[in-house]
Structure formats: C-alpha cells, structure tokens
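Hello again, I could really use a second opinion on something today. I've been staring at a protein lately and its backbone has me curious. Can you walk me through what the tokens say about the fold? Take your time with it, there's no hurry, and the full record follows here:
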Amino acid sequence: MATYTVTKVTTRPNTSTQWPWESLGTSGYSNLSEKVTISTSIDSDNLVQTSSFVWASKTDYTQNLRGAGTRDSVLNTKQDEYNTYMKTNNITSRITEEDGTVRVFNSSNKTFEVE
C-alpha cells in the first residue's frame, strides 16, 4: 500500500508565544506510531514550523480526520487542546495533502477547513 504525505505549516505571531507542543506536550499522535511518521523543522526566525506526516496509507489519514468515526480518542482530545491554544494565541496553520487538498485553520470554530 502506498504512503500518503501531509505537510502542515504553522506560524506563531512572535517568539514569546510558545509552540502548542511546548505548552501542552505531545500532540496525541504517539498512539498512532504504526500509522504515521512525523518529522518537524523550524525556520531560522523561529516563527514557522513545518511538519511532514507520512501516513501508512491515505485511508489511515482519512480515518483520523476530525469527524471520522474511527478517529483515535487520544488524538481527538489532544487536538481539541491544541486548536484551543492556537486560537487563544493567534497561531495560524495550513495543511497541504498529497492530493492537493488544502485545509486552513479557522480560529473562530477551531477546526481545519478545506480551502
């Protein structure tokens, strides 16, 4: 089965604002280590974080999207915390899927919406 790659670019307003993982700890993906591998880099000005999520398959990815009945419960809880933190701290984020789908963080309802 082919892997499926998703890239998430997150931007914080300044360096005094902690990254969500600095403030809240792990993001909830640890339960899914057999399904996804994550690598992260932060740009030189320390304001933009780029994370690459390589899923075992597109199905594994879609089964763990918000609203999917099969989504991991730990991931769901942690992502609620992360999204609330992002809204509160004016952090933006954009997800680009391998198939070209783009999801943008909507802080008003704390979800990622297809652009």
